[in-house]
Amino acid sequence: MSDLDSIRRYYAEELQAVANLQSEALVDAFAKVSRENFLGPGPWLILNPLHLVDDSNEDSYYRETADADPKHLYHNVLVAIDAKRCLNNGQPSFLATLIDSLELIRGDSVAHIGCGTGYYTAIIAEVVGAAGRVTAFEVDTGLAAQARTNLSHLSHVQVLEGDGGSVAPNEYDGMLVNAGATHPRRAWLDALRVGGRLILPLTVSNETDVTQSGQVLKIARQENGLSAGFLCSTSIFPCSGARDPELNDNLRAAFKRGDLKCVQSLRRDAHVCADTCWLHDEQFCLSTLPVT
Questions:
Q1: Rounded distance, CA 117 to CA 211, Å?
Q2: Residue 245: what are its φ and ψ, rounded to 5°?
Q3: CB 228 within 8 A of CB 265
Q4: What kind and span of H or E run contains 250?
Q5: Cα dihedral angle (73, 11, 92, 114), rounded to 10 degrees?
Q6: Side-chain half-sphere exposure of 78, counting CA atoms within 13 A
Q7: Taking the CA atoms of the chain, what radius of gyration do you get in angstroms?
Q8: Where do the H-state alpha helices sit in 67-174?
Q9: DSSP 3-state of 28
Q10: Are the beta carbons of 177 and 113 closer than 8 angstroms?
Q11: pLDDT tens digit string along 168-223?
């Protein structure tokens, strides 16, 4: 085993401990996939956590690695994809948590919406194996082109430029939306197979920040409905095609109530808003009622 292989394995096991990962296949994927292949040549810019203390100083956002040794990338850090836009390759422990929550197995079909340059798409592809299928969507033309090049060696991965609103019905066992929405799009819910899982950050816009804050929702299709529950908090870029101003305000009000654990299901049937409706809309409702 080379030094870099050992470094990747330590990195993967550290993520397993930090994120409490349940999938050994996911841990192995982090130990195998080369992060440097998705971030361009080094040295790289690492997001400095201190910018959260003093975000008025743009110079404090990033620090540059000492050299172009890939070992610098195998830590639980965000690495700049486009520093001018504050666009980063997501924090490994956070994305690992989301992917782990998909409960993927070999042969699964997965959609990754907001794939960036493709690193976490490659992780997903490694977990589901060549018998599986991964469709990656990226709305940014430049990033989609990079992802297509970076993932070209994986025959079971397809990269499409777009916002993921065109997914086919009954198509996926797992869907990961890697951007903040105010609501689940109808196409995403229709695309889930029975037993399929959708991981969706629900966020509210902030007038001053590029990123948006909220909570990650997990939706699972059962035989007789959609179960739903919140997993963790997040701060993430907005999702193109999945933001509505009115729902943004309604979602902010719902978050302020602080009763996240009450949500048990996502209803799509027509009904009058009641006390059991945590977030009610004509197209969907996050409900405190269980799937029956």
A1: 18
A2: -60, -40
A3: yes
A4: helix 245-257
A5: 70
A6: 21
A7: 19
A8: 92-101, 119-128, 141-150
A9: helix
A10: yes
A11: 899 999 999 999 999 999 999 999 999 999 999 999 987 655 678 999 999 999 99
Sequential DSSP letters for 146-180: HHHHHTTT-TTEEEEES-STTPPTT-EEEEEE-SB
CB-based burial, 125-140: b 16+ in 10 Å, e otherwise: bbbbeeebbbbbbbbb
Residues 6 or more apart whose CB falls under 8 angstroms from that of 142 comprise none
The strand pair at 157-161 and 133-138 is best described as parallel
Residue 285 is classified by DSSP as E
Beta pairing partners, 110? 134, 174
Rounded (10°) angle between helices 24-32 and 3-19: 140
**Structure tokens that stand for 167 in this block:** 């997914």
Q: Tokens in use for 192?
A: 């889930």
The dihedral sign for the CA sequence 144, 148, 151, 157: positive
Give tens-digit pLDDT for 93-145: 999 999 999 999 999 999 999 999 999 999 999 999 999 999 999 999 999 99
Cα separation values, 117 from 72, 112, 122, 234, Å: 18, 12, 10, 20
